Amino acid sequence: MNFQPQVFCGVCIGSASASLLLTILQLLPKKGQSLRKMPKASSSSTILLLISVCDILGSSGVIFRSTVWLGFPSFVANISVANGTDVWPSVFCVGSAMWIQLLYSAGFWWLFCYAVDSYLVVRRSAGLSTIVLYHMMAWGLAVLLCAEGIGLLYYPSLSSCERGLEHAIPHYITTYAPLLLVLVVNPVLFRRTVTAVASLLKGRQGIYTENERRLGTEIQMRFFKIMLVFIVCWSSNVINESLLFYLEMQPDINETPLKNIRSAALITWIIMGILNPLQGFLFTLAFYGWTGCKVELKWQKREIPWESVSSSTVGDNDYPSPVNYQSNVHDSKKISSTDSQQTDEAISMLSEGNTSGDDRVTRSSPIYQGW
């Protein structure tokens, strides 16, 4: 297909390097950033961090593989040598492919776990204990599918990829299963979560105020940004594989009528090299927004910058502490406040990282509205 690996690897290095540096910059603590304390870390914040870690490690694998392809052409040329005596080119080929596939597949599974956790948190059916189950599912399924896909592709010999659809189709099914799962299931879970949030906000006081409507919109926009980034970064892969399978089914791939299909496959391949590694940085924008460039170099214990509404204070405003207020009310009101706290905590977890909505979340709390 007249594929030029030098161009593709150069694009991959540029995109992955930019994404790696910007993702790390986004996650570093910043100077002058107001850090507020949350009494307990939520599973959703841990999942978002793990998604970023998977993207960082996956981008590192892309950079390493592309650097070897560009810097050591004679070494890479031995990958295609059948029955060669040097096994290291094949080890590099298989190892780098498994590393990249494993990390990005794990990222897909963690993104699916985030959608599940968001829905369960609103339904009050999840907690910190469920993070262990998420670890088992994300890493376990990623390792299982990656090993199965590589085994089916290279069986019976690890020295070279086996040709034929009977090897390629099972490999791509195991590779794209978590990707398609996120594309299909996550929007459904996010939509149900937004609906459940609206019900929670209405149930707190029996009314749906402008502040609560705005908060529901912000959570919905957060989910929309996450899915938009995912679709933008990975839809080119689905298109490319569809084109390749169509070409594979043709008796002669070099026929003139198939020229446009071949060109489209090459174009989408280059687009994949640009967009796939950028997922890490774009996800941090969807999760936290732009956090700025002023990095705090002095090490200090960093507190989680998102605060649970149930234990928050409004700072310089003349509102009393919710803790002091609750300690003076009747026992029956304490029960009502506890339910309200659980609702606020669930909603606060979904809006983590959205600093623009913190004040509105606090002021829309029934605890503060009752004063």
List keywords for this structure.
371 residues, mainly alpha, Rhopdopsin 7-helix transmembrane proteins, 12 helices, globular, G-protein coupled receptor, G-protein coupled receptor 143, GPR143
Describe this structure in words.
Residues 326-371 are annotated as: Disordered. Its main location: membrane. Residues 337-356 have a biased composition (Polar residues). Keywords: Cell membrane, G-protein coupled receptor, Glycoprotein, Lysosome, Membrane, Receptor, Transducer, Transmembrane, Transmembrane helix. Interacts with heterotrimeric G(i) proteins. Interacts with ARRB1 and ARRB2. Interacts with MLANA. This protein is mainly alpha-helical and 371 residues long. It has one domain: Rhodopsin 7-helix transmembrane proteins (Rhopdopsin 7-helix transmembrane proteins), CATH 1.20.1070.10. It has 12 helices and no strands. α7 runs antiparallel to α8 (259-288). The radius of gyration is 25 Å and the shape is globular. The N and C termini lie far apart (71 Å).
Layout of secondary structure:
Elements: H1 5-27, H2 43-71, H3 73-77, H4 88-122, H5 130-154, H6 165-205, H7 210-248, H8 259-288, H9 322-326, H10 331-350, H11 358-363, H12 366-369
Helix pairs in contact: 1-2, 1-8, 2-4, 2-8, 4-5, 4-6, 5-6, 6-7, 7-8
Family: Belongs to the G-protein coupled receptor OA family.
Subunit structure: Interacts with heterotrimeric G(i) proteins. Interacts with ARRB1 and ARRB2. Interacts with MLANA.
Subcellular location: Apical cell membrane; Lysosome membrane; Melanosome membrane
